[in-house]
Amino acid sequence: MEVDQMVPLPRLPRVAVCGGTHGNELSGVYLVRELLKLQREVMKKEQEEDSKPALVLLVLSNPRAMQHCRRYVDTDLNRCFTHATLNGPFSDMAPYEIIRSRELNALLGPKGSPEAVDLVCDLHNTTANMGLCFIGYSDCDWICLHIFRHLQMPDTPMRFLHFDVSNKESYSLDSLGKHGFAMEIGPQPHGVVRSNIYTAMKVGVQHMLDWVRLFNSGNVFEGGFVDVFTMVKHIDYPRDSETRNITAAIHPCLQDRDFCLLHPEDPLFQTFSGETVRYKGTEPLYPFFINECAYYEKGIALSLARKRRITIPAIRVQTEQEQQANEQGFASEEEE
Known about the structure:
Blueprint: E1 6-9, E2 14-19, H1 26-48, E3 55-60, H2 63-67, H3 83-87, H4 96-108, E4 119-125, E5 131-136, H5 142-150, E6 158-162, E7 179-186, H6 195-216, E8 224-235, E9 248-250, E10 267-271, E11 276-278, E12 286-288, E13 302-312, E14 314-317, H7 320-335
Parallel strand pairs: 1-14, 2-3, 2-4, 4-7, 5-6, 6-8
Antiparallel strand pairs: 5-7, 8-13, 9-10, 10-11, 12-13
Helix pairs in contact: 1-6
């Protein structure tokens, strides 16, 4: 893909901003509540300016978990959106989050269908020192990559994380849309809202919605380059072979150093008896989600990624003729 190549893409008439997928990640909870209050005024202003507003769906994803300020009630909602989970056997006795995932799929999807919303932005907090991250399943979704490039904020470190997972196996809420990403911001303790983290998220969402309006209005976005961190593997804590209790914590030299290159033999853990456990990998990689509170139960002390530079093309919204041709092509594929 060349930087100067122009790629016409369909309009984004329906955008969803979701908060509270994890009920104790409070920046998204409070931001979506605030946006719900302001939505009527914003829509009225856009109509007065005779613009082509996107329909913004504001969703509080996991109300029961939010009520109890817990990550989830029965099971992690943000792991319930695989094709198998959404389309498998179902009963009224299913865990709450399984039921809720199907409700959200009906509202925002169906996943993988022409009826799905055009863009999903799901808001999350992390206890790790990760700044503002976009997390997506594709390194060639030009919409998400251009939004990320547009969002660059001088006072907030930003990275694009790529989880190389197929559409059927993609498991998070943002995978319900034609395009989607999680906006992950930290550090912030769970069950707490910090004004600086909330403000960074608010600015990020505002810039994202501004970009969608510009794109839908016909603006051309020049091509360029984006650094992408592709997840390679997870590393668990050292554990007792019998009890499976952890026997070490993240080493002080690594704590809070998300996205700082980790070299072989660098300190990784410090055991509770005071010994240093070193990184035994064969190549330098970038650590992230270091000591994330919610991942203790998942057996993840940190994750590691490779960094590479992606070339993204120039993009613009499709003309009506291009859109009609695209829809006819999709219909032909459906008939086959």
